[in-house]
Amino acid sequence: VQLVESGGGLVQPGESLTLSCAASGFTFSSYVMTWYRQAPGKEREIVATIAWSDSTAEYLDSVKGRFTISRDNAKNMVYLQMNNLKPEDTAVYYCHGRGSWGQGTQVTVSS
Question: What DSSP designation does 7 have?
Fold first, then answer.
């Protein structure tokens, strides 16, 4: 199993980023996929999760209306579209699926 995140970076408040996670080594379309994040000095938290079947999604309250999780089962990809980013969104973002973690991608929101 391999999960590889990309798309992080440094942005100003109010800007957008899209994170991508490329999955391999398992039947991607059969698994729930989740984005987590971990800010310095804080515990890792679930940001968004998407079902394998109907792409039903759930979100952390603080990102509802700003973040959108999606998946492309044909490409074994999961995405996190992040709009109106805030400084408190600064964290390392991790992709998780089938019990495995990606290496993480840093998102920094700062003016």
Answer: -
